[in-house]
Specification:
Blueprint (H helix, E strand, L loop, with lengths): L1 H33 L1 E3 L3 E6 L9 E3 L6 E5 L10 E6 L2 E7 L11 E6 L5 E5 L10 E9 L2 E12 L2 E7 L2 E6 L10 E8 H5 L3 E2 L9 E6 L11 E6 L5 E5 L5 E6 L5 E6 L12 E4 L4 E6 L4 E5 L5 E7 L12 E7 L2 E6 L16 E7 L3
Parallel strand pairs: 10-14
Antiparallel strand pairs: 1-23, 2-26, 3-4, 4-5, 5-6, 7-8, 8-9, 9-10, 11-12, 12-13, 13-15, 16-17, 17-18, 18-19, 20-21, 21-22, 22-23, 24-25, 25-26
Length: 364
Amino acid sequence: MKNLLAPLLLLGLLVSCRNTTTTETATTGSTDSSTASVGQPKLLAILPEKYNTSDGLAISPDSNTIYLSMPNLANNTYPGVLLKIVNDSIQFVTDLPAHPDTKHACPMDLAFGPDGNLYYAENQYENDKNYRSRLMRIRMTNGQPGAIEPVVTGFGLSNAVVWKGNTIYVTDSQWDLPGNDNGSAIFRFTLDELNKGAIALVPKTMDPHLLTTFTTKVNETGVDNGADGMDYDSKGNLYTGMFGDGTIYKIALKPDGTFAGQSVLKVSEAIPCVDGMIIDRKTDKMYICDSRNNAIKIVAPDGKVSVLAQNGDTDGTGGLLDQPAEVLLKGNRLYISDFDKPEKKFVNTKSDAPHTMSYIDLTR
């Protein structure tokens, strides 16, 4: 009996060790890519290859429809288009006019103006770095798009757009000045100016439409893109974040919307990358896309940073974050565009199907 018991004990020990090793390996893999390490993003939609790089989000004036820009930068054999989200369904709205020189349309952030028209930043930087980017206007009638026209030309990389009253603010992530190749800026235009005819910016100058400028500190990613996402708080202060180094700036405005001063926002911990952002003006909480780390972060009014959602490298299956680029708050839901076109040293390593959009249910 003793001779039989010893082999049985040895066999049991081997099986136990083998089962323990398998469980640990599965857990590690799950944490890295198949589940969210923080938060619970959910799948909003799976998009076809012809909609491969989702970006800007804007709520219609009646608050019923969300408009979505699709620049298709990950695969620009497909044209840039405008889509909309209705009852969680993604619907085609209209093709967008290609730039006459680059032959591409590249819509980024977008916002409705006080005139009821839809304005979007057209980023041509990846097609032509010679200041071909524009601010475009889609004339809307009863929710239907009409004529589409440029209202400002000459941006380096027009990116975020925010209307505040009768003034539109536009970030340019690549506005270089003499002696500064890592520059970016915020521009300011009034509705009256835009209605008088197209405005042509003068590249590499302190153009009179400049609100303020910034310089990006280039790190190991090699990215020098600067001012990206932008929004304003309940007190009327404007904020923007740097895509390349994650610095967040607070810009104070005079009553007429012109520049009063700027400062670096003090935060409890560094955020390495700021892409899209939105501020809940009921709480002044700032929701930020940390595109580099596949994360959505919250910056409280006192500067405390917390992580709302985060996951490892993923293809977006099940709604996991796949390089979030833009956020939009509607009710208690935070909509998220997954850009899925990584830079060097990003958690996301490649653009791949499925192309997805996500959302997070919030309790405020």
